[in-house]
Amino acid sequence: MRKKVLSLLAAAALLPCLATTAHAVDFKTKGVWIMNFEYGGGGNFMERGRSANGVAANHTTGWGQYNEDQFEAKSRVRLQLDAVASEALSGTVYFEIGRQYWGQDGNKSGAALGADGNIIKIKHSYLDWTMPETNVKVRMGIQRIFMPDFVTEASQAFDADTAGITVSVPVNGHLSLTGFWARAYNDNWAGAGNSPQNYLDNFDLFGFAAPLRFEGVNITPWGLVGAYGSNTFRKDNDFYGKNSDGAGALGVAPAAYALNNSKVGRQIANAYSTMFWAGLTGEAVAWNPFRLAWSFNYGQSDTGVETLNRKGWYGSLLAEYSMDWGVPGIYGWYTSGDDSNVKNGSERMPTIEANNESTNGLDSFGTLGTLTLGRDTLVGSTFVGTWGVGARVKDVSFLDKLKHTFHANLLGGTNSPTMAKYIKGQKDADGYTMFRPDVTPGSMGDFNTANYYGLYLTSRDYAAEFGVTSTYQMYDNFKILVEANYIALWLDQSKDVWGAYTTTSGTRMGGVSTQDAWNVNVSFIYKF
Fold first, then answer.
1. Is 177 exposed, middle or buried (0-12, 13-18, 19+ CB in 10 A)?
2. CATH number among 2.40.160.100, 3.40.50.2300, 1.10.10.10, 3.40.50.300, domain 25-527
3. Between the CA atoms of 192, 198, 201 and 207, what dihedral angle is there, to the nearest 10 degrees?
């Protein structure tokens, strides 16, 4: 009893100290609640049924490449807590709950009857501090790191939540510098054969941006270099592993599909594969209300084996004019695509989690949309391997608190039509088939050529996208967003591209079928 009393007295004595410490830190919170309801059709863009009689055997149920129901209800909550000691020191933790698919149980969503799913995640967790007597700011921890783009508002090269350190230095009124180190992967290799656990499995990135601000013109050159070990994406004895979680999904594999049966797909020459990107983006606003924006990126990945390498570029241009009733604009983009030689690697620009945490301002359905849990990325996670032109009108308003944005895009592929033969199994080049799915040509089974990268469009394939987004700002912190989108797709159905063909053994193989996609969704968004 005496010990308990002494413990209570000691705790009471510490309370004033704790109170003093608490007053030194200001806790701030912010977050967002999103409730999303959507209905859509199509989206199974490039289904290919492999059967002996050539009849397509599409076993995909639900909507599109995500295998969802046509109608889905979803929700997500993000809560951010900032512990601010001063302007020079603070810490941030950012929690995420969801996305939750209503009715889905267990740890997948925790949104079925009874709820109680284990789905709380740490999205960001970092420390901000300023070096004494300077304006040098440092951020350490899990954070969003991305490269700039004045046209798309979303990087086509690198945009990810990752662990790292970012340093920002204002040089003068016109120039500031930002540099970072990011550790994307490390200590994930379980070990096999003569390669011990955690050996050569790290993936590190180093980047910089140098924003230049002048009257009427803003320009930002940037660069990014990286290296990943020979075991970073390795699974057992297969170097690239599965496309969904290996180098293919990340965007540094040689082409749209991770190597599967390639003779060189199980080993790379260098202990560390190296990567490099350079970009220049900017905007001219001197002729306000006219605005001109541009962006150019080049990137390459080198493994020491030509077949496994990748290099390419992307360029875009936007012109818009602000008026009282809205902001009309026209734009275009072009990216390099694969040539017809599978032995010389890929000519598509490598990417790393591009468009991950921002929205592509040029569309809302084909690539990443409005971050409202709606369906998107149907054409691809980025513009890589495509060209396009389009027009939009932003912020059209006829009623108070209600705004609309309209857009229409025409796009096509920049990849060689010969690549379609490798994807559908019609052509093989002495084991160098880069795109072969997990189905042997001529066997029973299905595959979908739409994967993490979306569609693989050749120079003889085209698509059109139409969309409207309406936002009603009901309260200062609450808005209702309604989207309606449609994508039409035209694939070349000749046997030299996506059409049916006859194997050397005389088996008739069905071609790749297409299906247009549409979607309507409404989101209720509370942000504070």
1. middle
2. 2.40.160.100
3. 180
21 phi, psi to nearest 5 deg: -65, -40
Residue 230, Cβ neighbours under 10 Å: how many? 21
Find tokens 């390669």 and name the residue. Answer: 195
Both structure tokens of 125: 């967790």
Lowest mean per-residue pLDDT among 18-32, 375-389, 463-477 = 18-32
The 10s digit of each residue's pLDDT in 64-91 is 555 677 888 999 999 999 999 999 999 9
Q: 296-345, pLDDT tens digit by residue?
A: 999 999 888 787 788 999 999 999 999 999 999 999 999 999 998 877 88
Whether 412 contacts 428, CB under 8 Å = no
Query: Measuring CA to CA, which residue among 309, 322, 213, 216 is closest to residue 270?
Result: 309
Note whether 216 and 286 are within 8 A (CB): yes
Query: Of 270-279, 309-318, 376-385, where does mean pLDDT reach its minimum?
Result: 376-385
Cα separation, 284 vs 252, in Å, equals 33
CB 134 within 8 A of CB 177: no
Percent composition of the chain: helix, strand, coil (DSSP 3-state, to 5): 10, 50, 45
pLDDT at 526 over 70: yes
> How high is the pLDDT of residue 283?
97
Which two tokens mark 52?
Answer: 């002996």
Q: Greatest CA separation found in the chain?
A: 93
Going by pLDDT thresholds of 50, 70 and 90, the confidence category of residue 61 is very low
Q: How confident is the model at residue 18 (pLDDT cuts 50, 70, 90)?
A: very low
Radius of gyration (C-alpha) of the chain in whole angstroms: 26
Where do the domains of the chain lie?
A: 25-527
Owner of token pair 């409730």: 35
Contacts for 186 with CB less than 8 Å, ≥ 6 apart: 198, 201, 202, 203
DSSP state of 350: P
User: Looking at residue 424, what DSSP letter applies?
Assistant: T
Task: Tokens for 480, please give them.
Answer: 């209702």
Q: What is the C-alpha to C-alpha distance for residues 403 and 395, in angstroms, rounded to an integer? A: 5
Write down the pLDDT at residue 451: 43
Positive/negative CA dihedral, 238, 241, 246, 247: positive
Alpha helices in 110-196 (DSSP H): none
In terms of C-beta density within 10 A (0-12 exposed, 13-18 middle, 19 or more buried), how is residue 179 classed? Answer: middle
